[in-house]
Amino acid sequence: MEIDTKQKVSQEILLKAFRHMMIAKATADVYEENRNICKYVHSTSRGHEAIQLATAYQLTKEDWVSPYYRDESLLLGIGFEPYQLMLQLLAKSDDPFSGGRSYYSHPSSREENLPKIIHQSSATGMQAIPTTGVAQGIKYIQEFNLKTYEQNPVVVCSFGDNSITEGEVSEAFQFAALHQLPIIFLVQDNEWGISVTKEEARTSDAYDFAAGFVGLNRMKVDGTDFEASFEAMKKAVDFVRTERKPMLVCASTVLIGHHTSGVRREFYRDEKDLEKHRAKDPGSLLRKRLLEEGSDEDLLKQIEKKARLEVEQAFQKAVEAEDPKPETVENHVFAPTSVTEEVGEREPQGQEKIVMVDAAIHAIQEIMWKHPEALLYGQDVGERIGGVFRETVTLGKKFGNKRVFNTPIQEAYIIGSTVGMSAVGLKPIVEVQFADYIYPGINQLITEVSKSCYLSNGKFPVSNIIRVPIGAYGGGGPYHSGSVESILCNIKGIKVAYPSNAADFKGLLKAAFYDPNPVLMLEHKGLYWSKVPGTEEAKTIEPAEDYILPLGKGNVILEADKNETEKGRTMLIVTYGMGVYWAKEAAKTFAGKVEIIDLRTLIPLDEKLVFERTKLHGKCLVLTEEQLNNSFAEAFAHRISKECFRYLDAPVEAMGSLNLPAVPINLVLEKEMLPNAEKLANKIGEMLNY
């Protein structure tokens, strides 16, 4: 796209930019002079000021921007004061972005009169997907008239050049181009990626790379020239605001400061390279330009002097600010949920039993009729087949392809986009086709989804539902049969449900929808249709529309005989998913001697119920379908043992699959690997005879 830089930028804007550049320079100088105080790793914007300020000046309070960790000038330009930035630099309690939990220039903001900023992480390029999710959400909101804006919002996602080689950035480019989203990808190219040169890292710059994404508009600009940058960003923002199409801006910049305070320029750069970059210092170039245009040199010197004084005063004030109180360290892991009690009718009269897959379809249908902010997307969930397990069938036809739609094979995008969608007030329900294919999305799940509430100090909990068909049966083989709950339960800041029957499934889905936090629904494929022998009881009476089952409530589905318990001849099995049906079948051999708890939710976990019943019975087995070693089940067995030690008559044990890298496809081998009722009955016999 052609850029007309002949239009003259007003003197007022040039002086404003010069002031901000001098503040940015002064902050870098003050931080360097106080290295012993600035003990946390940080980067500064030195060399990038022009393009960052030019971008900031275009944005309004209804726009969204995702700065990256070198974007302090962008933050200054949109309206944050040096003192506010320094509170984060020094990890102080009043840090407006993270409450002292995250690095410098890792903002998150819902300030009413400023552009909005979702949680920003350090992981290179990972902001691309959540920020594209913001643009996706805005497009959805406008298509369905869910909110009125004063003017069309624009979304800006800022990067360094080396982040563009990340695969997840390409997923964002692809989705933005495919769906024509109102987003600007701003790439600041200083030719360095820590010590990695552009020649070592890439075959082309971002401008040439973007040519492969049909529908992604692009432009180049000298990001050290403020006037050229201002005109380019004005044109880019006006284009996206009007045309509602994506744009990539590739801005050449220089790196004058250190990569970070911890990786210093003298470690890897020679004087020749540094001189080359210093010659394009945006502040010096703008100063020269202002003098050419007739600005008074004394005025510019006064601006520099005032900037230095302002920064020194702000820094001293930030140094004296209070640190966070230790007792706040656990705040904002989750946002509070209103769903704490089981409500509604679980077994309405006159209703027929339904299979689990229908319970999910009906629950989502009821949600979507009632809540226009709810939408469903993932691989193959659209109208044509309604999911590979028919788990979304009819929904596409009922709600249309703007609310229920197929995505590319982009697990990272499917999961990470929910961050942005949630931030603008939507409730995305997304699906990863098989548990074995969740791994490409784990990065977004850990880096962005799980940390957003905590590191934004509670401003941006991610409200989503991620559906994951899971588990083995019938020769699904090594890439369609895996269990992944231990990996997921190791991620702090997400919730994990694992229903074993239709009623629980419907109730938990409703709870997940009204929960403001990320919820993964693990859905055993073998229970969807109750086709596996022994799983008939996964079919239940369908609960009423008002039925909600809170997360974190286990259920005693089989009680032991009280007389047997009083004689010390009973035990407890704690399980979930398919394990419920192995346990029920095995318990038939030991009439009255086995009690079974269906956990239903793994995070939060109903430890109170399990501990109470373990203390009553004195013997406990945790049963899982996962490979046993280092599993969720083993870890929980340890906690049960520690909490209930004085009440135990035998060691708490765990039982699961053989410790193999994958589930083999051959049915004989699959059976040998997995637990079953027969194997479990042998274990029960051993424990009862302990």
UniProtKB/TrEMBL annotation:
<comment type="function">
    <text>E1 component of the 2-oxoglutarate dehydrogenase (OGDH) complex which catalyzes the decarboxylation of 2-oxoglutarate, the first step in the conversion of 2-oxoglutarate to succinyl-CoA and CO(2).</text>
</comment>
<dbReference type="InterPro" id="IPR029061">
    <property type="entry name" value="THDP-binding"/>
</dbReference>
<dbReference type="GO" id="GO:0003863">
    <property type="term" value="F:branched-chain 2-oxo acid dehydrogenase activity"/>
</dbReference>
<dbReference type="GO" id="GO:0009083">
    <property type="term" value="P:branched-chain amino acid catabolic process"/>
</dbReference>
<dbReference type="InterPro" id="IPR033248">
    <property type="entry name" value="Transketolase_C"/>
</dbReference>
<dbReference type="Pfam" id="PF00676">
    <property type="entry name" value="E1_dh"/>
</dbReference>
<dbReference type="InterPro" id="IPR005475">
    <property type="entry name" value="Transketolase-like_Pyr-bd"/>
</dbReference>
<dbReference type="GO" id="GO:0007584">
    <property type="term" value="P:response to nutrient"/>
</dbReference>
<dbReference type="Pfam" id="PF02779">
    <property type="entry name" value="Transket_pyr"/>
</dbReference>
<dbReference type="InterPro" id="IPR001017">
    <property type="entry name" value="DH_E1"/>
</dbReference>
<protein>
    <recommendedName>
        <fullName>3-methyl-2-oxobutanoate dehydrogenase (2-methylpropanoyl-transferring)</fullName>
        <ecNumber>1.2.4.4</ecNumber>
    </recommendedName>
</protein>
<keyword id="KW-0560">Oxidoreductase</keyword>
<dbReference type="InterPro" id="IPR009014">
    <property type="entry name" value="Transketo_C/PFOR_II"/>
</dbReference>
<dbReference type="Pfam" id="PF02780">
    <property type="entry name" value="Transketolase_C"/>
</dbReference>
<keyword id="KW-0786">Thiamine pyrophosphate</keyword>
<feature type="domain" description="Transketolase-like pyrimidine-binding">
    <location>
        <begin position="354"/>
        <end position="530"/>
    </location>
</feature>
